[in-house]
Fold this protein.
Amino acid sequence: MYVFNLKDLDINKIRADFPILGRTVYGKPLVYLDNAATTQKPRCVMDKITEMYTTVNANVHRGVHFLSQAATDEHEAARRTVCRFIHAVSENEIVFTRGATESINLVASSYCRAFCQPGDEILITAMEHHSNIVPWQLQAENLGLKLRVAPINANGELILEELEKLITPRTKIIAVTHVSNVLGTINPIEQIVKIAHRHDIPVLIDAAQSVQHCNVDVQQIDCDFLVFSSHKIYGPTGVGVLYGKEKWLNALPPYQGGGEMISSVSFEKTTFNELPFKFEAGTPDFVGTTALAAALNYVTSLGIDHIARYEHELLRYATERMLAIPGLRILGNAAQKSSVISFLVDGIHPYDLGTLLDKMGIAVRTGHHCAEPLMKILGVDGTVRASIAFYNTREEIDQMVKGIERIVAMFPGQK
Protein backbone atom coordinates (compact mmCIF):
# COMPACT_ATOMS: atom_id res chain seq x y z
CA MET A 1 0.00 0.00 0.00
CA TYR A 2 1.33 3.44 -0.94
CA VAL A 3 2.21 5.75 1.94
CA PHE A 4 2.18 9.39 0.92
CA ASN A 5 5.49 11.16 1.25
CA LEU A 6 5.33 14.94 1.52
CA LYS A 7 8.53 15.10 -0.53
CA ASP A 8 6.50 13.95 -3.53
CA LEU A 9 5.36 17.57 -3.67
CA ASP A 10 7.54 20.38 -2.34
CA ILE A 11 4.67 22.44 -0.98
CA ASN A 12 6.75 25.44 0.07
CA LYS A 13 8.28 25.64 -3.41
CA ILE A 14 4.86 25.23 -5.00
CA ARG A 15 3.36 27.98 -2.86
CA ALA A 16 6.13 30.32 -3.95
CA ASP A 17 4.90 29.85 -7.53
CA PHE A 18 1.55 31.43 -6.57
CA PRO A 19 2.15 35.09 -5.64
CA ILE A 20 -1.36 35.69 -4.27
CA LEU A 21 -0.85 33.10 -1.52
CA GLY A 22 1.62 35.48 0.12
CA ARG A 23 -0.86 38.30 0.63
CA THR A 24 -2.84 39.21 3.74
CA VAL A 25 -6.59 39.75 4.17
CA TYR A 26 -7.81 41.93 7.04
CA GLY A 27 -4.26 41.77 8.40
CA LYS A 28 -4.27 37.96 8.43
CA PRO A 29 -2.37 35.59 6.10
CA LEU A 30 -4.69 34.44 3.31
CA VAL A 31 -5.99 30.88 3.65
CA TYR A 32 -7.60 30.17 0.30
CA LEU A 33 -10.05 27.26 0.45
CA ASP A 34 -12.40 28.22 -2.40
CA ASN A 35 -10.65 26.26 -5.12
CA ALA A 36 -13.80 24.57 -6.44
CA ALA A 37 -15.02 28.04 -7.47
CA THR A 38 -11.73 29.07 -9.06
CA THR A 39 -8.08 28.23 -8.53
CA GLN A 40 -5.19 30.63 -8.09
CA LYS A 41 -2.70 31.02 -10.91
CA PRO A 42 1.00 30.12 -10.90
CA ARG A 43 3.51 32.69 -12.08
CA CYS A 44 4.18 30.73 -15.29
CA VAL A 45 0.56 31.27 -16.37
CA MET A 46 0.76 35.02 -15.78
CA ASP A 47 4.14 35.15 -17.51
CA LYS A 48 2.66 33.40 -20.54
CA ILE A 49 -0.13 35.97 -20.78
CA THR A 50 2.41 38.79 -20.64
CA GLU A 51 4.64 37.05 -23.19
CA MET A 52 1.80 36.62 -25.66
CA TYR A 53 0.67 40.24 -25.48
CA THR A 54 4.20 41.65 -25.62
CA THR A 55 5.73 39.40 -28.30
CA VAL A 56 3.18 37.77 -30.64
CA ASN A 57 -0.10 39.63 -30.30
CA ALA A 58 -1.91 39.24 -33.63
CA ASN A 59 -5.08 37.57 -34.86
CA VAL A 60 -4.68 33.86 -35.48
CA HIS A 61 -5.40 31.86 -38.65
CA ARG A 62 -5.90 35.04 -40.66
CA GLY A 63 -2.56 36.51 -41.58
CA VAL A 64 0.55 35.69 -43.56
CA HIS A 65 2.72 38.00 -41.48
CA PHE A 66 5.14 36.78 -38.81
CA LEU A 67 3.17 37.72 -35.70
CA SER A 68 -0.05 36.13 -36.95
CA GLN A 69 1.72 32.91 -37.80
CA ALA A 70 3.54 32.88 -34.44
CA ALA A 71 0.28 33.45 -32.54
CA THR A 72 -1.39 30.70 -34.58
CA ASP A 73 1.44 28.30 -33.79
CA GLU A 74 1.11 29.02 -30.06
CA HIS A 75 -2.67 28.62 -30.14
CA GLU A 76 -2.56 25.31 -32.01
CA ALA A 77 0.27 24.06 -29.79
CA ALA A 78 -2.07 24.72 -26.85
CA ARG A 79 -4.70 22.53 -28.53
CA ARG A 80 -2.14 19.72 -28.78
CA THR A 81 -1.28 20.18 -25.09
CA VAL A 82 -4.94 19.77 -24.12
CA CYS A 83 -5.19 16.73 -26.40
CA ARG A 84 -2.27 15.06 -24.62
CA PHE A 85 -3.50 16.05 -21.17
CA ILE A 86 -6.84 14.24 -21.53
CA HIS A 87 -5.44 11.54 -23.84
CA ALA A 88 -7.65 12.34 -26.82
CA VAL A 89 -7.01 10.56 -30.11
CA SER A 90 -6.71 13.70 -32.20
CA GLU A 91 -6.42 17.45 -31.72
CA ASN A 92 -9.43 17.69 -34.04
CA GLU A 93 -11.44 16.46 -31.03
CA ILE A 94 -10.50 19.54 -28.97
CA VAL A 95 -12.75 22.59 -29.29
CA PHE A 96 -11.93 25.79 -27.39
CA THR A 97 -14.86 27.60 -25.78
CA ARG A 98 -15.37 30.25 -23.10
CA GLY A 99 -15.77 27.67 -20.34
CA ALA A 100 -17.37 24.38 -19.34
CA THR A 101 -20.76 26.11 -19.33
CA GLU A 102 -20.48 27.16 -22.96
CA SER A 103 -19.16 23.70 -23.86
CA ILE A 104 -22.28 22.07 -22.42
CA ASN A 105 -24.54 24.64 -24.09
CA LEU A 106 -22.83 23.88 -27.40
CA VAL A 107 -23.47 20.15 -27.13
CA ALA A 108 -27.00 20.59 -25.79
CA SER A 109 -27.98 22.93 -28.61
CA SER A 110 -26.29 21.17 -31.51
CA TYR A 111 -27.00 17.61 -30.41
CA CYS A 112 -30.64 18.12 -29.54
CA ARG A 113 -31.33 20.00 -32.78
CA ALA A 114 -29.78 17.18 -34.78
CA PHE A 115 -30.90 14.07 -32.94
CA CYS A 116 -33.92 14.76 -30.73
CA GLN A 117 -37.65 14.76 -31.47
CA PRO A 118 -40.58 15.82 -29.27
CA GLY A 119 -41.03 13.28 -26.49
CA ASP A 120 -37.36 12.24 -26.39
CA GLU A 121 -35.56 12.22 -23.07
CA ILE A 122 -32.33 13.56 -21.58
CA LEU A 123 -30.96 11.84 -18.47
CA ILE A 124 -28.93 13.73 -15.83
CA THR A 125 -28.32 13.19 -12.10
CA ALA A 126 -29.54 14.82 -8.90
CA MET A 127 -26.10 16.25 -8.11
CA GLU A 128 -25.58 18.33 -11.25
CA HIS A 129 -24.35 21.91 -11.32
CA HIS A 130 -26.79 24.39 -12.90
CA SER A 131 -24.52 24.41 -15.95
CA ASN A 132 -25.43 20.78 -16.60
CA ILE A 133 -29.14 21.31 -15.91
CA VAL A 134 -30.26 24.59 -17.47
CA PRO A 135 -28.86 24.03 -21.01
CA TRP A 136 -30.80 20.76 -21.21
CA GLN A 137 -33.92 22.39 -19.79
CA LEU A 138 -33.75 25.07 -22.47
CA GLN A 139 -33.59 22.43 -25.18
CA ALA A 140 -36.39 20.47 -23.52
CA GLU A 141 -38.62 23.57 -23.56
CA ASN A 142 -37.72 24.46 -27.14
CA LEU A 143 -38.08 20.98 -28.61
CA GLY A 144 -40.65 19.29 -26.36
CA LEU A 145 -38.16 16.98 -24.65
CA LYS A 146 -38.27 15.50 -21.15
CA LEU A 147 -35.55 15.84 -18.53
CA ARG A 148 -35.15 12.80 -16.26
CA VAL A 149 -33.07 12.78 -13.07
CA ALA A 150 -31.19 9.83 -11.53
CA PRO A 151 -31.36 9.84 -7.71
CA ILE A 152 -28.64 9.71 -5.04
CA ASN A 153 -28.46 7.89 -1.70
CA ALA A 154 -28.01 9.31 1.80
CA ASN A 155 -24.21 9.41 1.39
CA GLY A 156 -24.51 11.49 -1.75
CA GLU A 157 -23.68 8.62 -4.10
CA LEU A 158 -25.39 8.03 -7.40
CA ILE A 159 -27.71 5.00 -7.35
CA LEU A 160 -26.44 3.31 -10.48
CA GLU A 161 -29.27 0.78 -10.66
CA GLU A 162 -31.85 3.56 -10.60
CA LEU A 163 -30.02 5.43 -13.33
CA GLU A 164 -30.17 2.37 -15.56
CA LYS A 165 -33.87 1.91 -14.81
CA LEU A 166 -34.52 5.44 -16.09
CA ILE A 167 -33.10 4.61 -19.51
CA THR A 168 -35.85 4.11 -22.08
CA PRO A 169 -35.97 3.83 -25.88
CA ARG A 170 -36.56 7.62 -25.87
CA THR A 171 -33.33 8.40 -23.97
CA LYS A 172 -31.09 10.31 -26.38
CA ILE A 173 -28.15 11.42 -24.23
CA ILE A 174 -26.85 11.09 -20.66
CA ALA A 175 -25.05 14.07 -19.08
CA VAL A 176 -23.34 13.51 -15.74
CA THR A 177 -20.79 15.24 -13.55
CA HIS A 178 -17.54 13.41 -12.85
CA VAL A 179 -17.15 15.03 -9.41
CA SER A 180 -19.91 16.86 -7.53
CA ASN A 181 -18.96 20.44 -6.72
CA VAL A 182 -21.05 20.22 -3.53
CA LEU A 183 -20.63 16.67 -2.26
CA GLY A 184 -17.21 15.83 -3.65
CA THR A 185 -18.67 12.52 -4.84
CA ILE A 186 -16.63 10.85 -7.58
CA ASN A 187 -19.11 9.21 -9.92
CA PRO A 188 -18.36 5.85 -11.57
CA ILE A 189 -18.29 7.38 -15.02
CA GLU A 190 -16.70 4.41 -16.76
CA GLN A 191 -19.57 2.22 -15.57
CA ILE A 192 -22.11 4.84 -16.61
CA VAL A 193 -20.58 5.03 -20.09
CA LYS A 194 -20.66 1.24 -20.44
CA ILE A 195 -24.31 1.14 -19.41
CA ALA A 196 -25.19 3.94 -21.82
CA HIS A 197 -23.31 2.43 -24.73
CA ARG A 198 -25.11 -0.88 -24.24
CA HIS A 199 -28.21 1.14 -25.15
CA ASP A 200 -26.41 3.07 -27.93
CA ILE A 201 -26.68 6.32 -25.97
CA PRO A 202 -23.86 8.92 -25.99
CA VAL A 203 -22.56 10.36 -22.73
CA LEU A 204 -21.34 13.85 -21.82
CA ILE A 205 -19.04 14.14 -18.79
CA ASP A 206 -18.78 17.41 -16.87
CA ALA A 207 -15.15 17.24 -15.72
CA ALA A 208 -14.95 20.81 -14.37
CA GLN A 209 -14.25 19.46 -10.87
CA SER A 210 -12.10 16.46 -11.79
CA VAL A 211 -9.36 17.26 -14.32
CA GLN A 212 -7.40 19.22 -11.70
CA HIS A 213 -7.57 16.41 -9.14
CA CYS A 214 -7.08 13.15 -11.01
CA ASN A 215 -5.99 11.62 -14.29
CA VAL A 216 -8.73 11.95 -16.91
CA ASP A 217 -8.29 9.69 -19.93
CA VAL A 218 -11.11 10.12 -22.42
CA GLN A 219 -10.11 6.99 -24.32
CA GLN A 220 -10.22 4.86 -21.18
CA ILE A 221 -13.50 6.43 -20.07
CA ASP A 222 -14.82 6.09 -23.64
CA CYS A 223 -17.10 9.11 -23.16
CA ASP A 224 -18.52 10.81 -26.22
CA PHE A 225 -18.16 14.35 -24.90
CA LEU A 226 -16.23 15.86 -22.00
CA VAL A 227 -15.98 19.46 -20.82
CA PHE A 228 -13.86 21.47 -18.40
CA SER A 229 -12.88 25.05 -17.58
CA SER A 230 -9.41 26.59 -17.60
CA HIS A 231 -9.87 28.67 -14.46
CA LYS A 232 -10.51 25.62 -12.28
CA ILE A 233 -7.20 24.03 -13.30
CA TYR A 234 -4.93 27.01 -12.55
CA GLY A 235 -5.43 28.69 -15.94
CA PRO A 236 -7.12 31.99 -16.86
CA THR A 237 -10.83 32.69 -16.81
CA GLY A 238 -12.90 32.82 -19.97
CA VAL A 239 -11.44 29.70 -21.59
CA GLY A 240 -12.93 26.22 -21.72
CA VAL A 241 -12.56 22.93 -23.51
CA LEU A 242 -15.01 20.67 -25.26
CA TYR A 243 -13.76 17.21 -26.14
CA GLY A 244 -15.89 15.24 -28.56
CA LYS A 245 -15.31 12.07 -30.50
CA GLU A 246 -14.76 13.01 -34.13
CA LYS A 247 -17.75 11.01 -35.29
CA TRP A 248 -20.03 13.09 -33.08
CA LEU A 249 -18.45 16.45 -33.81
CA ASN A 250 -18.69 15.75 -37.52
CA ALA A 251 -22.36 14.86 -37.12
CA LEU A 252 -23.33 17.97 -35.13
CA PRO A 253 -24.39 21.24 -36.77
CA PRO A 254 -22.48 24.42 -35.83
CA TYR A 255 -23.42 26.16 -32.61
CA GLN A 256 -22.62 29.73 -33.71
CA GLY A 257 -22.01 31.39 -37.05
CA GLY A 258 -19.42 33.91 -38.13
CA GLY A 259 -15.78 34.10 -39.07
CA GLU A 260 -13.35 31.17 -38.78
CA MET A 261 -16.02 28.46 -38.67
CA ILE A 262 -16.72 28.78 -42.40
CA SER A 263 -15.14 27.25 -45.48
CA SER A 264 -16.88 29.56 -47.93
CA VAL A 265 -19.73 32.06 -47.79
CA SER A 266 -22.13 33.38 -50.39
CA PHE A 267 -25.46 35.11 -49.90
CA GLU A 268 -27.11 31.90 -51.03
CA LYS A 269 -25.21 29.32 -48.97
CA THR A 270 -22.40 28.80 -46.47
CA THR A 271 -20.22 25.71 -46.19
CA PHE A 272 -18.57 25.03 -42.87
CA ASN A 273 -14.96 24.57 -41.90
CA GLU A 274 -13.35 21.28 -40.86
CA LEU A 275 -12.93 20.21 -37.24
CA PRO A 276 -12.40 21.70 -34.78
CA PHE A 277 -12.87 25.12 -36.40
CA LYS A 278 -16.49 24.42 -37.29
CA PHE A 279 -17.34 25.16 -33.64
CA GLU A 280 -15.00 28.12 -33.08
CA ALA A 281 -16.72 31.15 -34.54
CA GLY A 282 -14.90 34.46 -34.19
CA THR A 283 -11.47 35.38 -32.85
CA PRO A 284 -10.51 32.88 -30.16
CA ASP A 285 -8.90 33.84 -26.87
CA PHE A 286 -5.52 32.66 -28.12
CA VAL A 287 -3.77 34.33 -25.19
CA GLY A 288 -6.01 32.41 -22.80
CA THR A 289 -5.54 29.08 -24.58
CA THR A 290 -1.76 29.37 -24.43
CA ALA A 291 -1.96 30.31 -20.75
CA LEU A 292 -4.17 27.26 -20.18
CA ALA A 293 -1.48 25.15 -21.83
CA ALA A 294 1.07 26.63 -19.41
CA ALA A 295 -1.19 25.64 -16.50
CA LEU A 296 -1.60 22.09 -17.81
CA ASN A 297 2.15 21.76 -18.28
CA TYR A 298 2.66 22.99 -14.71
CA VAL A 299 0.22 20.40 -13.34
CA THR A 300 1.87 17.70 -15.45
CA SER A 301 5.30 18.66 -14.09
CA LEU A 302 4.06 18.09 -10.54
CA GLY A 303 2.47 14.76 -11.44
CA ILE A 304 -1.29 14.33 -11.31
CA ASP A 305 -0.92 11.15 -9.23
CA HIS A 306 1.17 12.99 -6.64
CA ILE A 307 -1.43 15.76 -6.59
CA ALA A 308 -4.27 13.28 -6.12
CA ARG A 309 -2.55 11.53 -3.21
CA TYR A 310 -1.60 14.74 -1.46
CA GLU A 311 -5.06 16.25 -1.80
CA HIS A 312 -6.67 13.02 -0.60
CA GLU A 313 -4.49 13.12 2.50
CA LEU A 314 -5.49 16.73 3.16
CA LEU A 315 -9.16 15.80 2.64
CA ARG A 316 -8.86 12.95 5.14
CA TYR A 317 -7.10 15.18 7.68
CA ALA A 318 -9.60 18.03 7.29
CA THR A 319 -12.58 15.66 7.57
CA GLU A 320 -11.29 14.13 10.81
CA ARG A 321 -10.52 17.50 12.38
CA MET A 322 -13.82 19.07 11.37
CA LEU A 323 -15.97 16.18 12.56
CA ALA A 324 -14.47 16.65 16.02
CA ILE A 325 -16.20 20.05 16.25
CA PRO A 326 -19.50 19.74 18.19
CA GLY A 327 -22.56 20.42 16.04
CA LEU A 328 -20.69 20.27 12.74
CA ARG A 329 -21.96 17.91 10.06
CA ILE A 330 -20.60 17.21 6.61
CA LEU A 331 -22.93 16.77 3.66
CA GLY A 332 -21.54 14.20 1.26
CA ASN A 333 -19.87 11.10 2.62
CA ALA A 334 -19.32 9.04 -0.48
CA ALA A 335 -16.82 6.20 -0.35
CA GLN A 336 -15.12 7.73 -3.41
CA LYS A 337 -14.70 11.43 -2.76
CA SER A 338 -12.61 14.32 -4.05
CA SER A 339 -11.31 17.35 -2.17
CA VAL A 340 -14.55 19.19 -1.35
CA ILE A 341 -16.10 19.48 2.11
CA SER A 342 -19.57 21.00 2.38
CA PHE A 343 -20.67 21.47 5.97
CA LEU A 344 -23.08 23.10 8.40
CA VAL A 345 -22.82 23.96 12.08
CA ASP A 346 -25.96 23.70 14.21
CA GLY A 347 -27.43 27.09 15.05
CA ILE A 348 -25.16 29.09 12.72
CA HIS A 349 -26.25 30.30 9.29
CA PRO A 350 -23.75 29.38 6.54
CA TYR A 351 -23.47 33.02 5.49
CA ASP A 352 -22.58 34.09 9.04
CA LEU A 353 -20.00 31.35 9.32
CA GLY A 354 -18.43 32.21 5.97
CA THR A 355 -18.39 35.94 6.73
CA LEU A 356 -16.71 35.47 10.10
CA LEU A 357 -14.13 33.09 8.64
CA ASP A 358 -13.40 35.70 6.00
CA LYS A 359 -12.57 38.23 8.72
CA MET A 360 -9.94 35.74 9.88
CA GLY A 361 -8.43 35.64 6.39
CA ILE A 362 -10.01 32.28 5.54
CA ALA A 363 -11.75 32.14 2.15
CA VAL A 364 -14.53 29.56 1.84
CA ARG A 365 -17.71 29.51 -0.25
CA THR A 366 -21.24 29.84 1.12
CA GLY A 367 -24.63 29.34 -0.53
CA HIS A 368 -26.20 26.80 -2.85
CA HIS A 369 -23.07 26.48 -5.04
CA CYS A 370 -25.12 26.62 -8.26
CA ALA A 371 -26.85 23.39 -7.27
CA GLU A 372 -30.25 24.46 -5.96
CA PRO A 373 -32.06 21.22 -6.89
CA LEU A 374 -29.47 19.24 -4.90
CA MET A 375 -29.93 21.55 -1.90
CA LYS A 376 -33.66 20.81 -1.95
CA ILE A 377 -32.93 17.09 -1.95
CA LEU A 378 -30.55 17.58 0.99
CA GLY A 379 -33.19 19.64 2.81
CA VAL A 380 -30.99 22.72 3.26
CA ASP A 381 -30.86 26.23 1.82
CA GLY A 382 -27.09 26.18 1.46
CA THR A 383 -23.81 25.09 3.00
CA VAL A 384 -20.32 26.30 3.74
CA ARG A 385 -17.84 24.71 1.35
CA ALA A 386 -14.11 24.32 1.83
CA SER A 387 -12.34 23.06 -1.27
CA ILE A 388 -8.73 21.96 -1.39
CA ALA A 389 -5.91 22.39 -3.90
CA PHE A 390 -2.36 21.06 -3.94
CA TYR A 391 -0.98 24.36 -2.60
CA ASN A 392 -3.00 24.05 0.62
CA THR A 393 -1.40 22.74 3.80
CA ARG A 394 -2.27 21.01 7.06
CA GLU A 395 -1.49 24.27 8.82
CA GLU A 396 -4.19 25.99 6.78
CA ILE A 397 -6.66 23.27 7.68
CA ASP A 398 -5.76 23.81 11.34
CA GLN A 399 -6.37 27.55 10.96
CA MET A 400 -9.81 26.90 9.46
CA VAL A 401 -10.72 24.48 12.24
CA LYS A 402 -9.58 26.92 14.91
CA GLY A 403 -11.61 29.62 13.18
CA ILE A 404 -14.75 27.47 13.19
CA GLU A 405 -14.22 26.59 16.85
CA ARG A 406 -13.84 30.27 17.71
CA ILE A 407 -17.05 31.13 15.86
CA VAL A 408 -18.96 28.29 17.55
CA ALA A 409 -17.93 29.73 20.92
CA MET A 410 -19.35 33.12 19.90
CA PHE A 411 -22.90 31.82 19.40
CA PRO A 412 -25.28 31.24 22.32
CA GLY A 413 -25.90 27.58 23.01
CA GLN A 414 -22.74 26.48 21.15
CA LYS A 415 -19.84 24.89 23.00
User: Anything to note?
Assistant: Residues 128 and 177 are 6 Å apart (CA to CA). The mean pLDDT is 94.
